[in-house]
Design a protein that fits this description.
about 120 residues; mainly alpha; Arc Repressor Mutant, subunit A; 7 helices; about 60% helix; about 10% strand; DNA-binding; DNA-binding transcription factor activity; transcription regulation
């Protein structure tokens, strides 16, 4: 039952549901998620850790980038089932639709170059 509760708790936060919905459309890094959600980097990182521990997402490194994607569900039947349903759920939600409409315009190179320019 612990595994089931962990997955349910992970999806009990609206920001984490938004992250899962976005990762269902494309692989993203923390800076892209932060930009889309308009949250602090530390907050996004905490959400990602909770989702990862629940078996809902996974990450891999590609050069300097840490990329996040939906997990395949092989580690948890509960995560697999909910990820399958979440693909279709909330598609008519205005907030989710707005976020999905913005995804093509969220570009990690632009976001990170702005961050570097601000730090200089």
């Amino acid at each position: 039952m612990k595994e089931f509760i962990k997955v349910m708790k992970a999806l009990s936060d609206p920001s984490r549901v938004r992250i899962v919905k976005m990762l269902g459309r494309k692989v993203m890094c923390v800076c892209e998620l932060q930009n889309a959600l308009e949250l602090a980097q530390s907050t996004v990182s905490k959400h990602l850790k909770i989702l990862e521990e629940a078996g809902l997402i996974e990450f891999y490194k590609e050069g300097l980038w840490v990329n996040y994607r939906l997990a395949d569900g092989s580690d948890s039947p509960y995560a697999a089932s909910l990820l399958g349903h979440l693909k279709h759920w909330l598609e008519d939600d205005a907030g989710i639709q707005g976020l999905m409409d913005r995804l093509p315009d969220i570009n990690r190179e632009e976001i990170c170059s702005k961050g570097r320019a601000l730090a200089s």
